[in-house]
Amino acid sequence: xxxxxxxxxxxxxxxxxxxxxxxxxxxxxxxxxxxxxxxxxxxxxxxxxxxxxxxxxxxxxxxxxxxxxxxxxxxxxxxxxxxxxxxxxxxxxxxxxxxxxxxxxxxxxxxxxxxxxxxxxxxxxxxxxxxxxxxxxxxxxxxxxxxxxxxxxxxxxxxxxxxxxxxxxxxxxxxxxxxxxxxxxxxxxxxxxxxxxxxxxxxxx
Length: 205
Fold this sequence. Notes:
Layout: E1 14-17, E2 21-33, E3 41-49, H1 56-70, E4 81-82, E5 86-87, H2 88-97, E6 110-117, E7 125-127, E8 145-160, E9 167-184, H3 196-200
Parallel strand pairs: 4-9, 7-9
Antiparallel strand pairs: 1-8, 2-3, 2-8, 3-6, 5-6, 8-9
């Protein structure tokens, strides 16, 4: 069993499906460059959940992924574990600090980002509520509702404390994107695209 001072062993991870949430920044059909990378592409999507969403089943899968590495006794788990779900209050603070719009987030609710490297053909499956494949990217937009299938894996990131200069290591449970199921339409973030009639109105001769 790994300890806070040893890297986690290689594991298969645990498959999980999220509750339905609002989709944000979907990059599911054509990969984009990873942040601060010049030659690595990834697919990604974010989900934003309303307050009081039940994460019992999802969090139990996160615990299984951790137990795969650190054992079943939670009292022996490291303390510095970053889990996939983040309080939206934290995301609001980050966006506001950058002068960006944070109106889609609600303090006390949860948020998560899912990603997968585009190498080796790791393209996520995208389907509708009936399980039929979606190939048109215009049908999946920020503000609609969906749920994500992901593989939860434990990753260790080595670093150095900027003050003490001591070696540090952070432990993350990373939700690797496998697919998204579009559940229903919603109000598009930013108002969405307007139809021609809404944009131009009727023409009076």
